[in-house]
Amino acid sequence: MLATGKTNAKLLIGRRFTDALVQSDMMLWPFKVISGPADKPLIVVDYKVKNAVITVPAYFNDSQCQATKDAGAIAGLNVMRIINEPTAAEIAYGLNNRAATVGGKNVLIFYLGGGTFDVSCSVLKREFKRKHRKDISGDPRALRRLRTASERVKRTLSSSFQANVGVDCLFEGIDFYTTITRARFDELNIDLFMNCLEPVESCLRDAKLDRSSVHDVVLVGGSTRIPKVQKILRDFFHGKELCKSINQDEAVAYGAAVQAAILDGKVYKVTLLDVTPLSLGVDVADGEMSFVIPRNTPVPAKMKKGFTTRYDNQTVVRFAVYQGERARAQDNNFLGEFDLCGVPPAPRHVTKLSACFDIDVNGILNVYAEESSTGEINKMIEEAEKYKAEDEKYKAEDEKHKKRVDAKAALENYAYKIRNTVNDQKINYLIPEADKKVVQDAVVQVIYWLDRNQLAEVDEFNYKRKELESTCNPIIAKM
């Protein structure tokens, strides 16, 4: 069921039915409110709602998605599916443009919600302080009323060049009146507006498309009505006319209602491919992220990646599961971890392991690891509902971390290679005992140093490797 007209419902949260504000606002709402148990206000709906499809922002992380599910359960709802808001908007666009989408089109959903009026609220707060020498920052009621006025300003300036602000008895009996122009509003928010292009550029890179390959740019969310936002988008896409064929405020709810009808078998099947917004991977050693499922992989998906043991005679391998794009695992979102036990003792890099990631259509991630010779398996099940974050700005830091990991690995691999060479009974008789001891002592010192300097810098690892090479290479060359 598509809930229509139930706007401003948040104003009822935490209030009683007899609250003066509720009684006053009831006269303006297009839906009926009645008194429930303990004087709680209840919205009257035509049908008792048992099942629900809930939409969440694309950047929601696992805990936020899980909290949304829990809230639905507490409210007595059977949450049939949680989907991203842009995905729901895409469903709405697809149904409204079925004829136009025959043959396939590249459609970019541009979703901009209500964050911009926070800036307007701050400006109005400063303006009140300037005019009346009073600070309303500590008055929640005054701030709430000012925030409501700020939203009205944003809406008004989407169609007018000037908006008048009037709030009676805003603070300590003082009425607040001022005027803000569209030019001033655009100036205040220009940084926010320009930042909107960053996820657009990232989306195009992920899809391997250029601007000219996008057939439609669909606007979703009330703030996409802001003229400056539309101009920035048109300029970015070389003057392309923006798609406003779907209601910016209702598109997400409409798409969720269609998804619910599909799950309930009420309408024909719509093929919907949701994707993983960020990569999934594991950290098995060194703190480095090893990617298994790349971001933007359509779900459901199942992928496997091979690993080996890190140390000699290692019998337990820990798999820590993360979601994100950062090179260093700890900088990503931690989902969970588990140990694979019963690994047969063997020299490092001999035992073969595999990690398998399996995401179902609901976004549930099932991870398991397996040792090939024994078939030993252990697994972790974790919610991996979508969340989105911008990672591009960390590329320089990630590159630095990668160089450090590579330098450490080069030193470690060389040390173990030399140690294995001098311990190989087939050839070690070619090395004098005195030289053998020099090599063994040097390797032991390096391994000891590595154990205590895991976070050393690239130059330190390189220096240690060259130092070890200068000691060992001349001896090995005599063989």
Automatic annotation (TrEMBL):
**What's the domain of life for this entry?**
Eukaryota
Q: Which GO terms describe its molecular function?
A: ATP binding; ATP-dependent protein folding chaperone
Q: Show the InterPro entries listed in the entry.
A: ATPase_NBD (IPR043129), Heat_shock_70_CS (IPR018181), HSP70_C_sf (IPR029048), HSP70_peptide-bd_sf (IPR029047), Hsp_70_fam (IPR013126)
- The keyword Disulfide bond appears for this protein: no
Provide this UniProt record's keywords sorted from A to Z. Answer: ATP-binding, Nucleotide-binding
The reply to whether Nucleotide-binding figures as a keyword in the UniProt entry is: yes
Indicate the family of this protein: Belongs to the heat shock protein 70 family.
Q: What is this protein called?
A: Heat shock protein 70
The species this protein belongs to is Escallonia herrerae
